[in-house]
Amino acid sequence: QVQLVESGGGLVQAGGSLRLSCAASGTILSRTYMGWYRQAPGKQREFVAGISSVGYTDYADSVKGRFAISRDNAKNTVHLQMNSLKPGDTAIYYCSQGGTWGQGTQVTVSS
Fold first, then answer.
1. Residues 6+ apart with CB under 8 A from 91
2. pLDDT digits over 30-71, tens only?
């Protein structure tokens, strides 16, 4: 059974940083594409960042230059380093692989 568990969310002031983690069990994250998504109140879930099996990364335009996705193969974990956070980044952040979703972690950025 595939399970994804996000962690690292919290409350931070604008301009601050957070590092999210997505730990996997029942699957090997390095074998397929892995993505981070977010959903703000009253809005649809949107793509944030992704990393392919060979390490190619892509980002939503809104986070380019501020967020960085990385993978720790030894720990079967994917990270999302978020810098220069803005109030507009406030959302529940989810990781996903192959149709499986984690439970999400709340990120709140205060102005």
1. 38, 39, 40, 43, 107
2. 888 999 999 999 999 999 999 999 999 999 999 999 999 999
